[in-house]
Fold these 2 entries.
Entry 1:
Amino acid sequence: QVQLQESGPGLVKPSQTLSLTCTVSGGSITANYDYWFWIRQPPGKGLEWMGAITYSGSTYYSPSLKSRTSISRDTSKNQFTLQLNSVTPEDTAVYYCASARRFTIATRRDGYDYWGQGTQVTVSS
């Protein structure tokens, strides 16, 4: 059973960089054909697909966030990270990491095999 756990600051100031880490257990982020995702849910809104990193380290980003987003990984720690630059209050959301055995841009929970519990990030001065 794959388990994912998000970690990072719960409060970020406007214009700063939001950095979150997803720690994976019960599976390897380099396992063939496994894909790893960041998804967020702003208050009162639906899920928003942010980006993905593949088992081989390739990355994909939402066009609307691409200029501000970077996803990377540390294979020695079995972790992958999200960096979102120049945040504004509109970036306030619950941020989730998730995984699937296929590439997907689904915006519903059943589009993924495993989810982290989510972490609340508030952007405020």
Note: DSSP finds no helices and eleven strands in the chain.
Entry 2:
Amino acid sequence: QVQLVESGGGLVQAGGSLRLSCAASVGTFSSNAVGWFRQAPGKEREFVAGKGLRESTYYADPVKGRFTISRDNAKNTVYLQMNSLKPEDTARYYCAGGYSGGLYFQQSSYHYWGQGTQVTVSS
């Protein structure tokens, strides 16, 4: 059973930064697409960032230029560096692995999900 564990969330003021981490129990991230999603209260889960099979990166428009996805295959860990945070970035952030094909921004393209880590940005 593959487990994904996110960490690094917290409370930060607008304009601040956080780095989220997602550690996998096995090498599910190695040479495979990975993604970050988020869900704000009362809203549906949405795509934030993805890293494709050939290390290409994809970002949702609201986070372009502010967020960066990266990974360390040796550590089976994916990161999301978040800069210039805004109150509208407040959400629970989830990493996704076990890519099975399809569009990187679709939740159905991933088999494994973490429990999420809360990010709260105060104004």
Note: The chain is about 0% helix and 50% strand.
